[in-house]
Amino acid sequence: MVRTLNLYLNPELSNSWREASLLVSKAAGHGMNHACNLRHWILRFLNLGKFPLHCYGTFNSSILQDEDIAQAIQLHLLEIGKTGYIWAQDIVDYIAKPEVQEKLAGKARTTIHHRTACRWLKKLNWQYTWKKNGMYVDGHERKDVIQY
User: Fold this and answer.
1) CA-to-CA dists, residue 87 to 20, 115, 123, angstroms
2) Does the pLDDT value for residue 21 go beyond 90?
3) Do residues 64 and 120 make contact, with C-beta atoms less than 8 angstroms apart?
């Protein structure tokens, strides 16, 4: 922001407002969008006195980090898996249930997107595969006992 103002306010250079922001943006390795952001941030500071917030490294955590919720989803998927196929839509429908929404209590929206459910399946270590004979979905592997 300071560099943009220096280029714009320097009478020897005679850069326009747009040119100054674009030069600073290009020097930093960015493009036209960043130049527009620079102008926006400067005007916001001049009008409101507020600097832009630095959001690098901040992100929304997943509700799957709550072990109780992750376990409830796992149990729901296990119940469905006993009788047939598991789809990402099963998670979407489960999260939309009123009793689940009461458990979440503001931790998640009332609905989740299908793509989010696909990512959750991957995080919960579910794979798209055919169910095979002798495959145990509860995580326990048992050896067949041969009786004579």
Assistant:
1) 52, 11, 14
2) yes
3) yes
9: left (phi over 0), alpha (psi -120 to 50) or beta: alpha
End-to-end Cα separation, the chain, in angstroms: 83
**Residue indicated by tokens 């006993």:** 82
Question: Is the CB of residue 29 less than 8 Å from the CB of residue 21?
Answer: no
What is the amino acid identity at position 101?
A: Q
pLDDT in tens, 87-120: 889 899 998 888 888 887 766 566 788 998 999 8
Residue 147: pLDDT over 60? no
Domain positions in the chain? 2-48, 61-148
Q: Is 46 left (phi over 0), alpha (psi -120 to 50) or beta?
A: alpha
What are 68's two structure tokens?
A: 């109780």
Cut 0.70: pTM above it: no
